[in-house]
Predict the 3D structure of the following.
Amino acid sequence: MRKTTSLLVIISLFLMSPAWGQKKKSLNRKAISSPASGKANQSRTAGNKAGTLMSQVQKALDQGRSGNYQAAASSLFTLGRRASTTEERAQIKYYLGVVLMEMKLNQVAAFQFVDVIRLNVPRLTKLAVEKLSIVADGLGDDTLLNYAVNRLDLRDVPSSNRDMIYFRIGEVKMKGKDFNSAENSFSRVTSGSSYYNQALFNRGLALLEQNKTNEALSIYRGLLSIRSKASVTDTNRVAAQLALARTYYQQGNWELAIEAYSQVPRDHVLWHDALFEQSWAMLRAARFRSALSNFQSLHSSYYEDFYIPESLLLRAIVYLYICKYDEMEKVLRLFEKTYGPVSTRVRDFIRNHNDSSAYFQEIDKAHQVKKGREVASTRLPYLVLRHIHEKGDVKRAYSYLKALDDEKSKIETSFGVRNSSIGQYALKIISNRKRNTQLAIGDMVKAHLLNMRTELRDLYEQAGFIRYEMIDGKKESLKKRMAGKDLPEVTVDEDVERSFFVQNGYEYYPFQGEYWHDEVGNYHYLGKSSCE
């Protein structure tokens, strides 16, 4: 019923068009000039052409009404090339865009609406912008979304599409770091909308950027309440829990942050991030044993493909606090052994490659590995590619590439469409968009690699400072021993004995270098402080 209604609407628009209406009247108007008059002949010819074109457009729209979208699209595509005026061309392109939307060919439809906007026919521009915002939302293409959103007048948007528009405007404002406007836009998304949960989450982020932590806490508690009946691994629920923990951390409420982080389920992909961030909160709360327990899991062989250089330095700092200088030395060596080659390979790759396509080819190998496919060896370390592949802008661009592939598949599997002029035109558009998107992804990867190179340089500098503190600590410890000062009988963190863990349901046995998946997350560091 919805498809028939939309085509009835565009037929109605066609009949009400001033340009078409005037030409229709000219067919019934008697010639004023003599038959020999050049003007009369030109007027009659133009009227006949307009009438013929109008009848053919009407026939194409009738085909669409009957559900024969393929025939309608082919006819309108051909007629659009024959249109002699800007108004005619814009009108036909708009109709073609609507028909292509019904065929789920959103990328090809988007090009029609962009053309209508560029032709600048005021009566059609508003309609084209609205349709463009819908197809761009479906595609997830940031470029098209920004183009549409920046031309929208919310007063012209039907109520059924306003939630989507408010959400997308909020995203644009967030990217522009206008967090107050972003918060306002996200707050306008209604609770019955499919965008509501994500709008709530993003609104909380906008509030945190403005340091309005209490309001953000209220938002995330509300989101958790909404998702309370979902499974414990529901991504919206887990993301809200993690955001709650981060908000407590931003407030400096370490204990509540630690507790909130612990609620992130172990079998969710965000657990590893939660465990690392919880370790920072534990350090700030002087819970050194607990932090070191987390590192045992973070640095297990199950996560050797994770890019987490900062976690090794954090582990070294914790050892510094409890004067475990030998352990510090081991961790700093591990940092240098792991990330020294990473830094070198990133630096060399950037020096040797300027073309965006080279960067895309590398990240696409990680994408194929994630999909379970075998690929040739990578020139960059896999842990680097995996880390960049998870970045928000890269993931979003890959989602857009998938939408393009799906659209291409629809065309190629339909024999009639594939071999038609509109089909060949559509495949050319999709091919160009894919190529440009791949180059854009390559640029994103290069930017992330440049940031990574800078980050590793800074972390190496910090590792140098940490090593200096380690050497200084060793020197002071040696001085005290030479002076005959022994360790105190009771040291920090010594008040909890191993029997405590056994009495509370834990099975105690020493770690001997072999990791088991069901043990990850259950390690407990039982060492004592060596500080004098």
Observations:
- Residues 1-46, 489-494, 504-509, 514-518 have pLDDT under 50 and may be disordered.
- Residues 421-482 form the longest helix (62 residues).
- The two ends are 81 Å apart (CA to CA).
